[in-house]
Task: inverse folding
């Protein structure tokens, strides 16, 4: 990891009081760096409902970010990437015009290794777009054609827990103005899954939207960690959730079971959602052509960036589908998703990993000086500064 002796000249994501570049002027990249952030506090860890035995650590602070700097000192930031690949990224970007984002993102995707859940190229792509927004003097949601600054978040649970505890959690979230909650259904007995949703519905009435995630598309094949659903369980669960007024059932069958998923979508009224682990545009074309899902859920880091994800948004609109990007990484990637959702007419929700107190989403956002938070109306208002609009707390940067 590159260590910096002085952080006074670092771009932390702020606009740095710079004027937009002149029309038609290039945005030549001078350097690419990775900066590590110190941990403020280790909060704790939660066991993942969809992967028994695996745990997600929650911290305040920590992590890293990639920074792209232009010849005139403008900087764009993106999520952390593996510092082993920094020489390749620098080779691809230095001396190039950042406005050439389509070609640069494609080139980086070609040279950086694929196969990991979160692809490395997506982090660079987000930083390029942040840089472009700042060069144009516009927040990304405006650059992409919208004046809407608010998005509706839903609280995505992490733990399985008990039906009673999930109902209590839903009530607390309702009291904190959250409008929607997503439950994980991973009990061995299907009746416990349905009881979980029923107790939550009874606890909050019709004041909260309820989404459900089966997480059956984690692997590329038929094997899954934890409980495995067959088609019958998926169909019976879908019909029960339909009666309980759930917004959608997410990934009830394996990732590439497109035929089965299309059959299920045609057999039930509740929308079937998915696509978070699908990495390529042609997969979403196939999903749309087969009517696999009613709601598409691509993930910007899985798809190697928001350049590709924006194309899925167009595809979804063309086929009359909703799009609700998956968000499993609650820092800069979530901010990028906020801008995308604000710019789309067919994107009703923002996913926010939030299972308090340990899994509170605000822990992820503690790296920013003024993070966008859920307000008294259950909405998140995007920052109106150029690019991603957020600033990294410079006191967290490791010197």
Result:
């Amino acid at each position: 990891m590159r260590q910096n002796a002085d952080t006074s000249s670092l771009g932390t994501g702020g606009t740095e009081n710079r004027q937009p570049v002149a029309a038609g002027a290039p945005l030549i990249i001078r350097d690419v760096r990775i900066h590590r952030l110190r941990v403020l506090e280790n909060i704790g860890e939660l066991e993942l409902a969809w992967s028994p035995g695996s745990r997600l650590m929650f911290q305040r602070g920590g992590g890293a970010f990639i920074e792209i700097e232009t010849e005139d000192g403008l900087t764009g930031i993106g999520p952390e990437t593996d510092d082993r690949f920094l020489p390749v990224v620098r080779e691809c970007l230095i001396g190039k015009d950042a406005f050439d984002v389509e070609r640069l993102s494609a080139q980086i995707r070609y040279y950086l290794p694929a196969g990991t859940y979160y692809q490395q190229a997506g982090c660079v792509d987000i930083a390029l777009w942040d840089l472009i927004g700042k060069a144009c003097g516009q927040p990304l949601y405006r650059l992409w054609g919208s004046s809407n600054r608010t998005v509706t978040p839903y609280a995505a649970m992490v733990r399985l827990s008990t039906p009673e505890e999930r109902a209590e959690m839903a009530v607390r979230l309702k009291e904190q103005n959250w409008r929607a909650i997503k439950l994980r259904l991973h009990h061995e007995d299907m009746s416990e899954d349905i009881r979980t949703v029923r107790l939550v519905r009874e606890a909050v009435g019709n004041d909260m939207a309820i989404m459900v995630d089966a997480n059956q598309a984690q692997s590329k094949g038929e094997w899954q960690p934890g409980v495995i659903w067959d088609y019958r369980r998926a169909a019976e669960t879908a019909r029960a959730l339909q009666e309980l007024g759930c917004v959608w059932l997410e990934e009830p069958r394996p990732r590439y079971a497109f035929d089965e998923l299309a059959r299920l979508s045609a057999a039930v009224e509740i929308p079937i959602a998915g696509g978070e682990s699908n990495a390529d545009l042609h997969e979403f074309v196939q999903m749309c052509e087969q009517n696999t899902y009613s709601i598409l859920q691509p993930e910007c880091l899985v798809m190697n960036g928001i350049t590709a994800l924006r194309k899925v948004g167009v595809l979804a609109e063309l086929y009359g589908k909703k799009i609700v990007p998956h968000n499993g990484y609650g820092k800069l990637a979530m901010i990028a998703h906020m801008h995308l959702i604000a710019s789309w007419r067919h994107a009703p929700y923002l996913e926010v990993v939030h299972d308090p107190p340990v899994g509170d989403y605000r822990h992820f956002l503690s790296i920013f000086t003024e993070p966008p938070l859920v307000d008294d109306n259950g909405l998140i208002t995007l920052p109106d500064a150029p690019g991603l609009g957020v600033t990294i707390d410079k006191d967290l940067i490791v010197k």
In short: The two ends are 11 Å apart (CA to CA). The longest helix spans residues 120-136. The domain at 143-381 is CATH 3.20.20.120 (TIM Barrel). Confidence is low (pLDDT under 50) at residues 1-9.
